[in-house]
Design goal:
Chain B: One of its GO terms (cellular component) is plasma membrane. The complex is a heterodimer. By secondary structure, chain A is mainly α. Helix content of chain A is 74%, strand content 0%. Chain A starts with a helix and ends in a 7-residue tail after the last helix. Chain B contains 12 helices and 12 strands. The chains are: A mainly alpha, B alpha/beta. The structure holds adenosine-5'-triphosphate, iron/sulfur cluster (SF4) and magnesium ion (MG).
């Protein structure tokens, strides 16, 4: 098993390298230049050329790539053209905001999704199951941003229960009041995100449970005289939950990556919002840093779920 | 005690709900099983063998099935037991062995755990005693290296070994009755023979009765004391193995026997009954369900509702046609050819 994991980790290295080249070239290929956003009718062409030159933007691509890579290894992702601040600092701040929201949303997603999915599968075709299915269909049919906007409008503006923008109140200082303020800001977007995100889990788990219920090994267990209640506990639920724990590995991508929809609608200054604004302003250094990070995160997510899978499913442990 | 009748199936019917109406997969089956005896139930695919077995085990979903009749087992009617009462019988007094050892075991649980589960529910043994019993069982079913195997997962074992595990589970609490639903179908021939020998050994040791479900008459000839031939949910002929093999009366039994692979090349295929068991929804409701498959039997020989008739003590056959119709092999062959 350790061998398998080690091999999987080693494969990641060339993957990341290829990813970094792709990301870099992709950023280069984007239309416009980093100064398009900051020019005004009075900016001279010569000044723009000068800016391009001192920022190394006229060098051949491989040279720019190499520079970028060297800096990358020193933890230097360059300066944001838009914010005139080091990218690492901006990303760091935003990542913390995103982490608050995403951890809350993810925990909530699983905390509701798992029991609801198990219930729906266990009591297939019951009233509860019908209601749950109705909910999943409706939620899936409505675009996510519509749900977000409606939630924001009703609970944020009309009822005024929650703040409608930002990640933390101004002048709350630090310590306990800051934590409370943060929580106030993440509750509504977090709940909405969870209510949407749990649909996939519920549907998947429900069908896993139903399949397992009709499996031969469950029939074997029942023919041993194991009461139905215990059959569900020891065989059906257990076997249905294992694949879910593996997919949970992927969710780390979202934990740091954030949700573009949620953060945009709630003007929540996290990674998702940063990404959108970086694209709008052609903030190359930020875009490349974020795309690279998303790429690495999804690789780590896959790696993590592979490892979890190998840990929980004996059939995969074979060398 | 040798011929104590301890399982009596009386007029049992099992109907499945399909699109709102019920269709009988087993209709009015009556059978007796004694301990120290192997009763083989034979019949081609879809004739209701497994449905009968799972009816005895009480494994049908009551919302989707309708079950009538009576199954008397050691003084109680299994069909009137509550789920809790049934759980005291299943695994303890009746053990079941399933057809497909690949899927019959939980892929995510260790072999030892799965065998021990029976003991968990039916005995008051300590953990140590259970472990010892599990090892003993694994040993008994002829699995080499028990200490190692109980810590393995199903996918690490071969099909034959897995079937032995399934048998170990079924016999864990020394049941009085074992129901083996095609225990060897998924296995190759040499393993088949070993598994059958194993079942016979266990039966002798435990004085159990066995219901052996199969469509392989070779297996029946080798193991069975009693034989019941099923067609379309009904028993069409039953008797001792000798009576059935030496003196088959029902045309379906005869055709089954004739379709047994034989060395004699000339007879190949000659007596195979055409067609197959119709699906539940297409099954004729009135008249004999078997009539469409034996077009060579003259109209006058058919009964409206063929009932069981005794040919000789212990040997019963549905319908009286055998009296009016001479089953000359040559004749059957002629019409068929
Ligand atoms: N749960 C069910 N719901 C509806 N119909 C069923 C169900 N189980 C079995 N049947 C039908 O009942 C009939 C008898 O099935 P059964 O599995 O008992 O046959 P069998 O003799 O065991 O066949 P095989 O040799 O293929 O195992 C078939 O027509 C089958 O399609
Ligand atoms: S009615 Fe009798 S003779 Fe006719 S097919 Fe049925 S069993 Fe055979
Ligand atoms: Mg069957």
């Amino acid at each position: 098993m350790w061998k398998t994991i080690l091999r999987r980790v080693l494969i990641i290295i060339p993957e990341v390298f290829v990813l970094s080249i792709l990301v870099f070239l992709l950023a280069k290929a984007m239309p416009g230049d980093p100064f398009t956003g900051s020019i005004n009718p009075h900016t001279s062409l010569a000044h723009i050329h000068h800016l391009m030159k001192i920022n190394g933007l006229y060098d051949p691509w491989y040279q720019q790539y190499w520079n970028w890579l060297v800096h990358l290894f020193h933890g230097d992702l360059g300066m944001s053209y838009e914010y005139q601040e080091p990218v690492t600092r901006i990303v760091g701040e935003r990542a913390i905001n995103t982490l608050w929201l995403a951890v809350f949303a993810t925990v909530l997603t699983y905390a509701i999704g798992l029991p609801v999915g198990l219930y729906a599968g266990r009591h297939q075709n019951s009233r509860g199951d019908h209601a749950i299915r109705m909910y999943t269909y409706v939620t899936y049919a409505i675009p996510f941003f519509v749900i977000l906007v409606m939630g924001l409008w009703i609970f944020g503006y009309l009822l005024g229960w929650f703040p409608t923008t930002g990640s933390i109140g101004t002048n709350v200082g630090s310590g306990f009041p800051a934590v409370i303020s943060r929580l106030q800001h993440i509750i509504l977007p977090g709940i909405l995100q969870a209510l949407f995100g749990l649909v996939g889990i519920v549907q998947y788990l429900r069908s896993e449970v139903i399949d397992a219920t009709h499996s031969d090994y469950v029939r074997t267990a029942r023919s041993k005289g194991v009461p139905v209640k215990d059959v569900f506990k020891h065989h059906v639920f257990r076997n249905s939950l294992l694949p879910i724990t593996a997919t949970a590995g992927y969710s780390i991508t979202g934990l740091l990556g954030g949700s573009i929809y949620t953060e945009t609608v709630f003007s929540y200054p996290g990674m998702g919002l940063l990404f959108v604004s970086a694209i709008n302003y052609r903030d190359y250094t930020v875009i490349t840093a974020l795309v690279l990070m998303y790429g690495v995160l999804s690789m780590l997510g896959t790696l993590l779920s592979d490892i979890i899978m190998a840990a929980v499913d004996p059939r995969i442990r074979i060398e | 005690m040798a011929t104590d009748e301890f399982l009596a199936i009386k007029d049992v019917s099992t109907a499945f709900k399909i699109h709102g109406s019920y269709y009988k997969a087993v209709s009015d089956v009556s059978l007796d099983i004694h301990n120290d005896e192997i009763l083989a139930i034979v019949g081609e695919s879809g004739c209701g063998k497994s449905t009968l077995a799972t009816t005895i085990m009480g494994l049908h979903d009551p919302a989707e099935t309708k079950i009538d009749g009576e199954i008397d087992f050691e003084g109680q009617n299994l069909l009137s037991l509550t789920e809790d009462q049934l759980n005291d019988v299943r695994g303890a007094k009746i053990g079941m062995i399933f057809q497909d050892p690949l899927s019959a075991l939980n892929p995510l649980k260790r072999i030892g755990e799965q065998i021990q589960e029976s003991l968990d529910y039916h005995t008051k043994m300590t953990e140590a005693e259970k472990k010892a019993r599990v090892l003993e069982l694994v040993n008994q079913v002829g699995i080499p290296n028990p200490e190692r195997v109980i810590r393995q997962f199903p996918h690490e074992l071969s099909g034959g070994m897995r079937q032995r595990v399934v048998i170990a589970i079924a016999i864990a609490c020394k049941p009085d009755l074992m129901i083996a639903d095609e225990p060897t179908t998924a296995l190759d021939v040499t393993i088949q023979a070993q598994i059958l020998d194993l079942l016979k050994d266990i039966q002798r040791e435990n004085h159990a009765g066995i219901i052996l479900i199969t469509h392989d008459l070779g297996v029946v000839a080798e193991t069975a004391d009693q034989v019941a031939v099923m067609y379309a949910g009904q028993v069409v002929e039953q008797g001792s193995a000798q009576q059935i093999f030496d003196n088959p009366k029902h045309p379906y039994t005869r055709s089954l026997l004739r379709s047994m692979p034989q060395r004699d090349k000339e007879n190949d295929d000659l007596y195979v009954i055409q067609g197959s068991v119709p699906s539940l929804q297409k099954m004729p409701v009135d008249g004999c369900k078997f009539a469409p498959r034996v077009p060579w039997i003259p109209e006058a020989a058919h009964e409206e509702h063929p009932s069981m008739h005794e040919v000789e003590p212990g040997h019963q056959v549905r319908c009286t046609c055998y009296q009016s119709f001479e089953f000359q092999d040559a004749k059957v062959g002629e019409v068929e050819a």
